[in-house]
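User: My instructor asked us to take a sequence, write out its structure as tokens, and then describe one feature of it. I'm not sure where to start. Here is the sequence I was given:
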Amino acid sequence: PNAPRTATEIERESLRAFALGASIVHAHNSDIALSGQAAADDYLAAWRPILAALPDALWYPTLTSGEGMAAKLDHIERIARAVPVPMCAFDPGSTNIGMPGPGGLPVGGVYGVSYEDVRIAFEFCERLRMGPALGIYEPNALRTTLAWQRAGRLPAGSMVKLYFGGEYGLMSTEPGVSFGLMPTESGLLAYLDMLAGTDLPWSVSVWGGDLMQTPIARLALERGGHLHIGVEEF
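Assistant: Let's start with the prediction itself. The structure tokens for your sequence are:
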């Protein structure tokens, strides 16, 4: 009930987050089902005044629920015609999203992101000069990202967001079904082994949990990473 939904609430909370020291703010709009110009207009109602107050703020919207990666990104280009959008979020890999079903067994669906989707999204970022904010749900997504880097095709400004699966996962109100690596020291070190020598900026978050109650928050800061917190993950 305390999550900001209206443009006024998003404006207020975003400005508070920046004032308290946030480097980057990620926001949704009032309805993720909106697409195209309707989605863009809904974002702009909040972000025009935010960026008037903080013209250099680093921020990014989310994807819409449209069919196909190009459709999911369409509103972002529309927003960028009106205000600066320095970053673009997408997830360069697939994962299972679920919850406990009968007997505690996993039920749910597949959040699918194909290699073709990844190509479309990276080329979108390159064309519009946006830094990709990359949600890494599973190690495969990071390996895909690193393949683009090795090929010299990873857009400038790429940020690797390491998503660790908390006890409640991505969408459950009951614990017991999650995704990805656990938020442990070994889990973070496994990702850092993969990132060694890449110089990519990275952050940690715990989806369906509390980052600050895990050992990876302090370890991330000690190793040069960033902390990714907020109502979306918690």
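For the description part of your assignment, you could build on this observation: The radius of gyration is 17 Å. Try explaining in your own words what that tells you about the chain.
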